[in-house]
Amino acid sequence: MMPENTPSDTSRQRGQRLLFVAGLFTLLLTYPLLGAFDHGGRVAGVPVLYLYVLLTWLLLIGLTGWLVRKAT
C-alpha cells in the first residue's frame, strides 16, 4: 500500500512545477526566440512579435493558474 502524499510533498511538487514553468517562459521570452519573430510580418494586422509575446504571456497565466488550482 502506497502512503498518500503529505502536504509538504504536494507543496514541494507544486514549487518544482512552478519553477520549471518560470524557467521555460524565461527561455521563451529571451532574445534568440524574440529575434526569430521580429520581422515585418503581420497576422490579421498585428505584428508577429506582438502576437508571439501576447500568446506566450497568456499561456504563462493559464498554465500557472492550472498548476496552482490542480495542486490544491
Automatic annotation (TrEMBL):
Source taxon at top rank: Bacteria
Entry keyword set: Membrane, Transmembrane, Transmembrane helix
Membrane-spanning residues: 18-37, 49-68
Protein name per UniProt: DUF3311 domain-containing protein
Natural source organism: Hymenobacter ginsengisoli
Classification lineage: Bacteria, Pseudomonadati, Bacteroidota, Cytophagia, Cytophagales
